[in-house]
Amino acid sequence: MNSRARLSLAVALLPLAAGALPSPAAEIPLNERRSAYDDMSRDNKAMQDDDTSNPGMLAVLDGEALWTAKSGTSGKSCADCHGDAKTSMKGVAARYPAFDTASGRPVNLEQRINLSRQQDQKAQPFAYESKEMLALSAYVALQSRGEPIAAHDDPRLAPFIDKGRAAFNQRQGQLNLSCGQCHDDNWGKHLAGNTVPQAHPTGYPSYRLEWQSLGSLQRRLRNCMIGMRAEPYAYGAPEYVDMELFLMWRARGMKIETPAVRP
Amino acid sequence: MSAPTATATRRQFLAAAGGVGLVLAVRPAEATPASMKQAIRQVVSEAAVKRGKIKLDLPPLVENGNSVAMSVTVDSPMTAKDHVKAIHVFTEKNPQPNIISAQLGPRAGKAEIQTRVRLADTQSVVAICEMSDGSFWSDTVDVIITLGACLEDLP
Amino acid sequence: MAARTLINVPPKAKRGEVIQIKTLISHIMETGFRHDNVGRPIPRDIITSFVCTYNGEEIFKAALYQAIAANPFITFHTVATESGTLAFQWTGDNGFTQDASAKITVE
Fold first, then answer.
1. CATH number assigned to the domain with residue range A33-263, chosen from the 4 options 3.30.420.140, 1.10.760.10, 3.40.50.1450, 1.10.10.10
2. Is the predicted ipTM greater than 0.90, yes or no?
3. Is C74 in the B-facing interface, judged by CB distances under 8 Å?
């Protein structure tokens, strides 16, 4: 972004940034929630709707191959334990992040995949945002397409949802903005050429045109924090998983769209 | 910004060296309406290009210039005697004036292609078709590219 | 590593029917105009050519340039003449080549 655009962005956001007190954002009423899909152009919607033109499906095909690939010293594939993903993985992504008893805290889908790789397949974990991780998580999440998001039923998750909510409403970065100020209070308005979405994680991993590739929810959160001029956490940080959990709670009942296409 | 002479020299060198296959380590000057005209001339030579028959479909307002849905259709019976031989699409302000060049023929049945293109800035896009009788037809669409608000570093 | 492709050809068609073929391939289409975070140019790496043959006969060909978006999506039409195989080939910079095919039954 050139300096002129950056300046006009800073000026546009001045009224929001001026306040010093934390601002409790007004939660969006459940029946007013909408996916960013609804704000997209006709052509981008068509790209998402057609499995033969959705670039995210290329990663899904890679993930399908990984699902049956023997891995690690165990010589097992995901399929060897989990069978046909269409049945065994149905609804799974819709209820992640989920509570992990061993660590006593929630883990997201990518972490669960890696835990399985290390513990059950005795294989090396996939790096965050690696081609393999994106492909496999996209393939697993596809099996929840159309399912309502349900990552909140477990009472053990409650304190972590609270942490995520606090982070969502916490002002941060040089622009001193909280997520809620844009995504709860000003959704639907415009920031430069973009419509501000409500920020529901219904389609992750998503094919973002800005990235020209598939990317995870954490990548998106990091990019938002960088946009606010805040130092992002490392991939896999518990702060991100708590935020993911809160966002999924906030989007409860909305349908999974993975792999979504977004501008 | 390079002087026009430097740009022309670089482009002549590119054309002489075999065009698309060459990679230069210097930042090329942006395409201009003049370089687009040059690229068009390489396809049509001195033939007249008329408006009509071909339809270029691009969204007038684009959310992200990295991937813009584009459709080109030519009204033609696609018979052996009367068909579209080729469709060429050009851009006015991308660093390189060509987008795609497709060869069709009577076996196509219907002269329509779709793809997704990158558009660097608000500009005109020109589609030209070559018919079996040697005639050329064109259509032009003006596209507005909007920029994203937030800067994202590479991870 | 092979580039992933996604082909959409109707499995069945009537003789003489005009069918639409959709193709998608995984490729970065690096333009050569970008620079990395220390200002070094990132070399061009694009698909430059796409060809489709129908039972060995070329029915569609396209030259692609940097302006084609990453993960190129191309659709075109052809007349369903006979049963057989549609073969697709993409070629590009750095010796890139990828093949794919689809069968069609024409009644």
1. 1.10.760.10
2. yes
3. yes
